[in-house]
UniProtKB/TrEMBL annotation:
Entry-linked Gene3D superfamilies: HAD superfamily/HAD-like
Source organism, top-level taxon: Eukaryota
Binding site for Mg(2+): 8, 10, 179
Cited PANTHER family: PHOSPHATASE, ORPHAN 1, 2, PYRIDOXAL PHOSPHATE PHOSPHATASE PHOSPHO2
Species this chain originates from: Elachura formosa (spotted wren-babbler)
Name of the protein in question: PHOP2 phosphatase
Length: 241
């Protein structure tokens, strides 16, 4: 009996978007219009690359960025939920699949002492260059037309499950916890026994209900959450069974 918990990060574990939060470090806490308007759909990683160059050009250093990022609030109930998962690690494998970046996620989880809860974090690689600028790269290449070009979460999940099977690990159930449009692709990969937990009022919930209305519903069960306490209640039921 082992369960796999798959978490998105922005607006799921934390209650904000880490990539837009970093703008608090910019002069006057905003970006110039030209930069702000340079985003093209599906190319968020490139856009953030330009944001990091702008911050670097304006003398924003690593320690200031780290201080700012570690003030992001966790979603309501999330600290309790992650504590509960940490206490029951023998039952839960736990991964993050996120379109944020490795530096931000690492800072935030370590500051709150939650890094050990997660077995693996799949996100865009990031590092500081010799000149002190934060750089970010695509997580991988893929052929999925539904996803942004830097990350298909379904591919990540499938490859992780395949690797776990090779190690002799299979899961009783996968619980997928997310909020965004890019969480729909992996949710559609889930099987009848799995469960998708979209955050109430966010894009993923809306997209799942649109599919149900057009009579092509997802295969897995769906349980909407508004506080991470809802997720914890479900997991407690799961391990009682």
């Amino acid at each position: 009996m082992k369960f796999l918990l798959v978490f998105d990060f922005d607006h799921t574990i934390i209650d904000e978007n880490s990539d837009t939060w970093i703008v608090k470090c910019a002069p006057e806490r905003k970006l110039p219009n030209g930069l702000r308007n340079s985003y093209q759909p599906g190319h968020w990683t490139e856009y953030m690359g330009r944001v990091f160059v702008y911050l670097g050009d304006n003398g924003v250093k690593e320690d200031e960025m780290k201080r700012t990022m570690t003030t992001i609030p966790f979603t309501t109930g999330m600290i309790d939920l992650l504590g509960f998962i940490g206490e029951n690690k023998e039952l839960f494998d736990c991964i993050i699949v996120s379109d944020s970046n490795a530096v931000f996620i690492d800072w935030i989880l370590k500051a709150a002492n939650f890094r050990k809860v997660f077995d693996e974090v799949f996100t865009n690689p990031a590092a500081f260059s010799n000149t002190g600028y934060l750089t970010v790269q695509h997580f991988h290449a893929h052929h999925c037309a539904k996803c942004p070009e830097n990350l298909c979460k379904r591919k990540v999940l499938k490859e992780y499950l395949d690797k776990q099977l090779e190690r002799g690990v299979s899961y009783t159930q996968i619980v997928y916890i997310g909020d965004g449009g890019n969480d729909l692709c992996p949710v559609m990969f889930l099987k009848k026994n799995d469960i998708a937990m979209p955050r109430q009022g966010y894009t993923l919930e809306k997209k799942i209900s649109q599919l149900a209305q057009s009579l092509s519903p997802v295969q897995c069960s769906v349980l909407v959450w508004s506080s991470a306490i809802d997720i914890m209640s479900y997991l407690k039921l799961l391990i009682k069974e």
